[in-house]
Design a protein that fits this description.
405 residues, mainly alpha, two-stranded antiparallel ribbon, 19 helices
Length: 405
């Protein structure tokens, strides 16, 4: 395996792409930090603070309010709002509330208003927030009625409500701007790594055929060829693992160095658009989970691409097949019939590409029952990626040997 890893790493293209990936990680992190915007409401209008200044301005504002969303703190915020609305109009009271309690008004809207409706007077109508957590499953069930085009069965709705009810409460809510930035950076880099994995693994077996080495290796026998094939896939997986770890470490270092570290112990439900997330995790736990899922997805795609290469013995044809395999979800989403089919929606969610998209499975309300065990979307995709990797890892050497003969 080490010998095959050294072959991959010693190539100028592979080394250049690795440095390019690290540089791109730094560049992308800097871009999203610069693009970060914090809205500050002043008497004469809204002021937009961008970049690192915006990050720290919002962080200082959130440090002044409670981090625990217990009923007592929620009710105290509503009391402050009622005092504001007595002296100001609704719009001004909302802006003043947003300035004092950044992000809290959105949480109230998630808990009490369905996503397809809008009500700017919600805080005026609320007398208390004692039923804040009891009302979340109600809104979850309402959001699963198909307004967004998704189709859910009764069993799925029931399982989703049960899983959300198991999330630890009260929620912890600290400043999470740096985690949002890191999520966006990782999301884009994971997709680039997918393409890199296809390019790299799509030529691991065809190189001998292109230079005539297969005629020399053929007399070595079946066992030797199997061992070489296993080492090729393992060496590719090791190289991708090291490259992915290096880029992830660089991204985290840049983002946390510029924006500070806070909110790691917050509930993942407090992250951007994750309010109904079914994972009973803290932010740092979900990020580790997302990196593990992306790693499994990338290695899965690499193994499948290597299998195609062992079968075709042509790097261009195998890369083309792998790209077609990756593009199926995007092509299917353009078909009206596929969008309306609950079965097709579930199948597309289980595509290995979903593993590199934490925004997809993290916000997904779909669940799967396997042998009496209920799995969330990410769990199911992770399980399938491991299965596909094992299958491709097992079959590729056999196909490689047969095609060589």
């Amino acid at each position: 395996m080490i010998r095959e890893f050294q072959k991959i790493y010693s190539r100028r293209t592979s080394t250049g792409l690795l440095f390019a990936a690290v540089f791109f990680s730094v560049l992308l992190s800097a871009f999203f930090i610069h693009d970060y915007t914090y809205e500050v409401t002043e008497e004469d209008g809204t002021v937009y603070v961008q970049g690192r200044k915006g990050v720290w301005a919002e962080r200082r504002a959130m440090e002044k309010i409670p981090t625990e969303l217990c009923e007592e703190n929620l009710n105290a915020s509503l009391y402050d709002y009622r005092r504001l609305v007595k002296s100001e109009k609704t719009d001004k009271a909302n802006r003043a509330f947003d300035k004092k309690y950044p992000g809290w008004r959105i949480l109230f809207e998630y808990a009490y208003i369905p996503e397809h409706k809008v009500d700017d007077t919600l805080l005026q109508k609320l007398q208390h927030a004692d039923d804040f957590y009891k009302n979340i499953p109600v809104q979850l069930y309402e959001n699963m009625k198909g307004y967004d085009g998704q189709r859910y069965s009764r069993a799925e709705k029931k399982r989703a409500c049960q899983m959300l009810a198991k999330v630890k409460k009260p929620y912890q809510f600290e400043f999470l701007g740096q985690w949002t930035i890191l999520l966006k950076v990782s999301y884009l880099c994971f997709y680039l790594f997918l393409l890199y994995a296809v390019f790299l693994a799509g030529q691991v077996f065809s190189c001998e055929n292109e230079c005539g080495m297969d005629l020399i290796l053929l007399p070595c026998g079946k066992k030797t060829m199997y061992r070489i094939a296993y080492q090729k896939i393992a060496g590719t997986a090791l190289y991708l693992t090291i490259a992915l770890f290096a880029c992830t470490a660089v991204q985290a270092a840049v983002v946390f160095a510029c924006c500070g570290i806070s909110g790691a112990g917050s509930s993942i439900q407090m992250l951007w658009q994750f309010f109904f997330c079914l994972y009973p995790m803290e932010v740092w736990q979900f990020f580790l989970y997302s990196y593990a899922a992306a790693w499994a997805g990338i290695l899965c795609i690499a193994a499948v691409s290597a299998f195609f290469n062992a079968w075709t013995k042509n790097k261009f044809f195998s890369i083309m097949l792998a790209v077609l395999f990756l593009s199926v979800p995007f092509a299917a989403d353009s078909l009206p019939a596929a969008r309306e089919s609950a079965v097709w929606q579930r199948l597309m969610l289980l595509h290995p590409m979903t593993a590199v998209n934490p925004l997809s499975y993290g916000r997904s309300l779909r669940t799967f029952s396997v042998g009496g065990v209920v799995l969330r979307s990410g769990d199911m995709v992770l399980l399938l990626c491991i299965f596909l990797f094992a299958a491709a890892f097992f079959l590729a050497p056999r196909v490689y040997w047969k095609r060589m003969r």
